[in-house]
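Retry 2 of 3 after timeout on previous attempt. Resubmitting structure tokens to design endpoint.
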């Protein structure tokens, strides 16, 4: 049920130059970058897809699009500095130029979720790939049943998009629950792991779809909790993270059993990958 979206018609291996229009610091090591093309228009993307971002002279990394799919003027990416390439991207100043290939990969099945209760579950940086789906869902919330956004971080300082979380939580058409693994004196919310929030939600498991993104250990436990609550395996979708190099299924770096995450994913149905997800280091 996840939608396979073809890459843009340009040479998929040739990065195009994009200018950094704005940079917003999210946490100590995470930044959100607005990118606009130097030439032409930004290609359309579907929630859940990713681009390959290139820091000239250093290399490229896959980064999910984290912006609003209804805005065709730009690409928005939220990046954590964890290596040489991502550190250079996070440090990019407004006005600088990055290379971009994409968009690539499959999408969240937002249209197929219409008429269902919807659980959107994110851990850590996993909220970024889900943010476009949240934008799309909330823009047409009357087409869904009960909507809940469940989000967890290691600590209060690591939470992303805190202003948006507050704005979403103030709406009458969505329930937002946020938890942290470890609290500090500034935190007055829930403490615990993300899967524990599922028991607190009001939803019809026989008519629920769930979208999950985060660390693989969180995905395993969250999917198990959803299955235990009665949600069908083919109604659970996960975005997988793998070391993607070519983005078009040629190099094999992102092979996950029978699938290549770059072209068969990153969004994959749980019933298709459940057995593999239980195997460590596959």
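Retry 2 succeeded. Sequence:
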């Amino acid at each position: 049920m996840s939608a396979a979206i073809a890459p843009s018609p340009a040479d998929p291996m040739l990065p195009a130059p994009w200018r950094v229009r704005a940079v917003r610091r999210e946490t100590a090591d995470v930044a959100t970058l607005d990118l606009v093309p130097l030439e032409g228009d930004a290609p359309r993307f579907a929630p859940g897809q990713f681009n390959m971002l290139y820091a000239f002279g250093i290399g490229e990394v896959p980064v999910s699009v984290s912006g609003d799919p209804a805005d065709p003027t730009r690409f928005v990416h939220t990046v954590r500095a964890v290596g040489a390439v991502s550190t250079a991207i996070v440090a990019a100043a407004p006005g600088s130029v990055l290379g971009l290939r994409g968009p690539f990969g499959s999408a969240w099945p937002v249209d197929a979720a219409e008429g269902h209760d919807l659980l959107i579950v994110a851990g850590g940086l996993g909220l970024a790939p889900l943010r476009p789906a949240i934008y799309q869902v909330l823009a047409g919330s009357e087409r869904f049943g009960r909507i809940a956004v469940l989000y967890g971080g290691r600590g209060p300082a690591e939470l992303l998009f805190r202003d948006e979380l507050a704005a979403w939580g103030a709406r009458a058409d969505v329930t937002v629950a946020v938890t942290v693994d470890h609290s500090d004196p500034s935190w007055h919310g829930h403490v615990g792991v993300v899967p524990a929030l599922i028991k607190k939600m009001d939803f019809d498991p026989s008519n629920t779809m769930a979208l999950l993104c985060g660390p693989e250990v969180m995905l395993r436990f969250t999917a198990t909790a959803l299955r235990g609550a009665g949600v069908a395996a083919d109604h659970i979708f996960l975005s997988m993270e793998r070391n993607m190099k070519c983005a078009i299924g040629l190099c094999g770096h992102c092979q996950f059993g029978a699938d290549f995450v770059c072209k068969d994913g990153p969004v994959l149905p749980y019933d298709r990958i459940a057995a593999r997800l239980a195997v460590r280091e596959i």
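Attempt log closed. Residues 27 and 269 are 31 Å apart (CA to CA).
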